[in-house]
Automatic annotation (TrEMBL):
Residues 490-665 form the Transketolase-like pyrimidine-binding domain. Residues 1-18 form the signal peptide. It comes from Pseudo-nitzschia australis. Its cofactor is thiamine diphosphate. GO terms for molecular function: pyruvate dehydrogenase (acetyl-transferring) activity. CDD domains: TPP_E1_PDC_ADC_BCADC. Pfam families: E1_dh, Transket_pyr, Transketolase_C. InterPro entries: DH_E1, PDH_E1_Alpha_Subunit, THDP-binding, Transketo_C/PFOR_II, Transketolase-like_Pyr-bd, Transketolase_C. Residues 366-383 have a biased composition (Basic and acidic residues). The lineage of its organism: Eukaryota, Sar, Stramenopiles, Ochrophyta, Bacillariophyta. Transmembrane segments: none annotated. The keyword Signal applies. Residues 362-383 are annotated as: Disordered. This is Transketolase-like pyrimidine-binding domain-containing protein. Coiled coil: none annotated.
Length: 821
């Protein structure tokens, strides 16, 4: 049903002031910054603190009852003013957005149903949680239903959606099946993620719903990567097939997909917000930052911890417009939100939408809300700031668009769907226990990556995206590196660079991110990539590893194969949250989403390195505990080349560590065109059988700079009448226990020259595994030559006490062979 503009305008004017809150409101700390602006426009006269008054002289019960922030009572003309001023819309265009919603009864009804689905589903979740059928942490969205209403109205199936841990309703409004969501919460095999994700990790491939992320704000760089993947599709002329793999089919000419990322106004104080806005503006990303402003950072009043929570204005520094709307009026959210979304779809760049709302529930069902001033606020908000009640009052009582029975029937229809979802979840089977181990890696550890074929259309995509001059330059560069390799003179950095170029030409879905990328970074790993493949595929990044690891994760979710080069692996500390999520994603999504990502960097701690503590940390040990992450090391050009190629072809996250002090020093040949396994060690030197039989041989496990130290010690060890099996641990995870076993069956003695700390280090893990699995092969305890737990000092006179070297290895072998250990 359509309505005339005149009737609509009259009705809206009548309804505009229909909903008011308490006349006096209390702000916990008067000195806290409030939402102010110097702008003289009519809109800014109604900012979020417009009615805030410090309460004095009231009794305790009155003060407690009013312990809340005020509503904003924003009228549509104030929203329209913002759209004209910040987004450049004409009065006529703004009126058309209003008419499209307010003048169409079917759209209003659909909006109402979306809100009722959100409310009904969350109420059902709460009931099932109390019955013990849903477990763990769960975060409900009651009171914020105007946002799923907007999604249902304005977001398309192919748009990429990135939410946080309070995402049930966002998934519902994005088209994800209610039964599958409920089954996920019930831990069932029919859930969106086969019961592996739970409440905070809802994913759906068909609807491009990409989380559900549990760490506050981690989703922001992922969404930037998702938006970047849209631009990559357009640049390369490719699109997704049914398996999220790239196909040589260009997106349609009218491709207007966007990436949508949700964040709370409290979470938006995180530094990732500034990084997202910078990246979005710099690359003109088609991304919407949708800020859900309920005034609480968990349960803390946001204004108590945030100097300025006007997130919609924070884009001004980057040239990104923003809009503030009142979540109490679902139609206004839909109208204003659609205008913002269309701004992005038109190619004008990113935008911010901030929705002022109230959350009716505590942070989670187990939240002690009465201890944090929430109880009275919730009671007031449920009565005075309920968007569903507001919709019913506006469109039944004020405008007469619906009868009470019409909306009751709509609610009844939705409640039946919610009931069906609960029954489906209840009746579904639990996932098999074997699934947990199956979801560790997308590709089995023994995968032969030489058998993986590149896309058949690679040459065609390369021809249309790389100019003949660029192709000639990179082919000359590759030829020069091949010549070095054939002469046995290629360095580790150059070997990795050669592997990267070969793989980027073999598969155009391969991308790379790095700091100082144009200049080749510190060791030439990304050399000539941007000059060849352009800024879309080879991106210079800001100096924050967490941000561009996160962007790579977002690309990996969307059919690309990102490479991340860390100038030094110690800097990866900034990206621990993103690395952790990369490792978890394949399993968390129930195997629905592959997570290809290759992280490469120089690191480790060499003797006499003189880099001090912060550049000498054993980051390889730090990430050993991240599930789902394959970790390798390479102390030679051959290993670096072959492992890099395999990692780029792997469908999961992989991390290659190279020795920082050997990147240019170590040179040698490589096996051109060949991939190396990601689960094997390498025996670099083997003790003669006779020496082993006499009890004078030791198995030595080492990696990174320890390889050089081990090789340097062999002659001195042999002069004493002893020898070693020197094994390079090229795979730290998964660990090659078979090779260790084979050597211990010969030597019965184990020494670990370990480039990590005594507590929690690589050697500690290996020693424990050997004791558990190979104890009967040992004639003596494992000898661990590891870094001391003290920070690595700069002065070499002190460093010798912390960092082990060849002299320590020689003494260790002597002690083992002479019974002194």
């Amino acid at each position: 049903m359509k309505f005339s503009t005149a009737a609509l305008t009259m009705g809206l004017a009548t309804a505009a002031t229909a909903f008011v809150g308490p006349s006096q409101l209390y702000v916990p700390h008067k000195i806290s910054n409030v939402r102010t602006t110097s702008s003289p426009t009519a809109f800014h006269a109604a900012t979020l603190d417009a009615e805030t008054v410090a309460v004095n002289g009231q009794d305790d019960s009155e003060t407690t009852a009013n312990s809340m922030r005020p509503p904003i009572h924003m009228k549509w003309d104030q929203v329209a003013s913002q759209l004209e001023e910040a987004f450049g819309y004409s009065t006529e265009q703004v009126a058309a957005y209003a008419q499209d919603v307010e003048g169409d009864k079917d759209k209003l009804l659909k909006l109402y149903k979306a809100m009722q689905m959100a409310r009904g589903f969350e109420n059902a979740c709460n009931q099932q949680y109390m019955q013990g059928k849903i477990r763990g942490f769960m975060h409900l969205d009651n009171g914020q239903e105007s946002i799923p209403g907007l999604l249902d109205y304005a977001i398309k199936q192919t748009d990429k959606k990135f939410s946080y841990y309070r995402e049930h309703t966002h998934a519902l409004a994005s088209g994800v099946d209610p039964g599958a969501i409920m089954a996920e919460l019930f831990m069932k095999d029919t859930g969106t993620c086969r019961g592996a994700g739970g409440s905070m990790h809802i994913f759906d491939r068909e609807q491009y719903f990409q989380g559900g992320w549990a760490l506050v704000c981690e989703q922001l760089p992922y969404a930037a990567g998702g938006a970047k993947s849209i631009l990559l599709d357009r640049t390369l002329g490719v699109s997704d097939d049914a398996d999220y793999q790239k196909q040589n089919v260009a997106p349609p000419a009218d491709d207007d997909r966007i990436s949508v990322v949700f964040v709370g106004e409290g979470g938006a104080q995180n530094g990732r917000t500034a990084e997202l806005l910078n990246s979005a503006a710099k690359d003109n990303l088609p991304i919407l930052l949708l800020v859900i402003d309920n005034g609480r950072a968990i349960n803390t009043f946001t204004q108590d911890v945030a100097q300025n929570s006007n997130v919609y204005e924070q884009g001004k520094h980057y040239g990104i417009p923003g809009l503030l709307v009142d979540g109490m009026d679902a139609a206004d959210v839909a109208k204003g939100g659609k205008a913002v979304i269309d701004y992005i779809r038109s190619g004008k760049g990113p935008a911010i939408l901030q929705v002022h709302t109230y959350r009716f529930n505590g942070h989670s069902p187990a939240d002690p809300e009465h201890e944090r001033g929430r109880k009275d606020e919730k009671a007031w908000a449920r009565q005075e700031q309920d968007p569903i009640k507001g919709f019913e009052a506006k469109y039944i009582d004020q405008l007469g668009v619906f009868t009470e029975d019409e909306l009751k029937d709509a609610k009844k229809e939705i409640m039946a769907q919610v009931k069906d979802a609960v029954k489906f979840a209840d009746d579904s089977p639990m996932p098999p226990v074997e699934l947990a181990k199956e979801l560790e890696f997308p590709d089995a550890p023994d995968t032969d990556y030489n058998l993986r074929e590149g896309p058949a259309f690679a040459d065609e995509v390369n021809a249309r995206t790389i100019s003949p001059e660029q192709m000639s330059t990179v082919q000359d560069h590759i030829a020069a590196l091949v010549a070095k390799a054939e002469a046995g003179e290629i360095s580790i950095g150059d070997a990795i660079n050669l592997a990267i170029h070969e793989e980027m030409l073999r598969d155009p879905s391969t991308t790379i991110h790095a700091e100082d990328l144009q200049a080749g970074s510190s060791y030439d790993i990304p050399k000539l990539t941007q000059q060849t493949y352009g800024q879309m595929r080879a991106a210079d990044e800001i100096i924050d590893e967490g941000h561009f690891i996160g962007k790579a994760l977002g690309e990996g979710l969307n059919g690309y194969r990102p490479i991340v080069e860390l100038m030094n692996t110690n800097f990866g500390i900034y990206g621990m949250a993103e690395l952790s999520s990369a490792g978890n994603t394949y399993a968390t999504t129930g195997g629905k989403f592959d997570m290809p990502m290759t992280i490469i960097g120089a690191g480790g701690t060499a003797p006499n390195q003189s880099l001090g503590a912060e550049h000498s940390q054993p980051f390889h040990a730090y990430v050993m505990g991240i599930p789902g992450l394959k970790i390798a090391t390479a102390a030679s050009p051959a290993a670096a080349y072959g492992i890099t190629k395999s990692m780029i072809r792997d469908n999961g996250p992989c991390f290659l560590f190279a020795p920082v002090k050997m990147m240019k020093e170590a040179k040698g040949p490589i096996d051109l065109g060949r991939c190396m396994p990601l689960n094997k060690s390498a025996v670099l030197h083997k003790a003669p059988d006779a020496v082993c039989s006499s009890g004078n041989a030791v198995t030595v496990l080492t990696y990174l700079h320890g390889v050089k130290e081990g090789q340097a010690s062999i002659e001195a060890i042999q002069e004493e009448g002893f020898d070693i099996d020197l094994i390079e641990l090229r795979s730290l995870k998964p660990l090659d226990m078979d090779t260790i076993r084979e050597s211990l069956e010969r030597t019965n003695k184990l020494c670990i020259l370990d480039e990590s700390t005594k507590s929690g280090g690589v050697g500690a893990t290996i020693s424990a595994l050997v004791s558990e699995e190979l104890f009967d092969l040992l004639d003596s305890p494992v000898k661990r030559l590891c870094m001391d737990d003290a920070p690595v000092p700069y002065a070499s006179s002190m460093e010798v006490a912390v960092v082990k070297r060849s002299s320590d290895l020689i003494q260790g072998v002597f002690d083992l062979c002479t019974g002194q250990w």
